[in-house]
Amino acid sequence: MDCLWYTSLGLFTNIIFVVSIDLMINTANITWFNVVIMLGTTFVVYISFLIGVQYSTLFNSYASIYNSVISPIFWLNLILVSSACLIFDYSIKSINYFFKPNYSRELEIVYSRYGQINSTEKLSNNIIEKLNQNKNQSQTKSKL
Fold first, then answer.
1. Separation in Å, CA 129 to CA 48, 77, 114, 121, 133
2. pTM
3. What is the domain extent for residue 23?
């Protein structure tokens, strides 16, 4: 029973950390309000729940938090599993970013190469066709 409790404690701690870090990284505009809400709703509530469960008579988990915190396996598991999940997620996102660019990414590439463009006279027809093709694809996806 103790082994199952420690395993689930480690797994759910990993899930909470991975989802929270992923949400914080993917937030477009980070403000102090976002940070307070994310830290308050995830880490503070989760840790207070674990402390409350530790002294509860409903579960057979006395001193499980203490035993987990002093265990180097728990911390190694937390670091390795969380890092592996985040690396996998962001490697897929970076592959899509670099090899399957959308319309806005195409415009970033054109702007970095040619600077501010007020007309299409500076661009070749091939680039204009590719931009229009990506624009049409993104408009079709947004309509769906």
1. 57, 50, 16, 13, 6
2. 0.59
3. 1-98
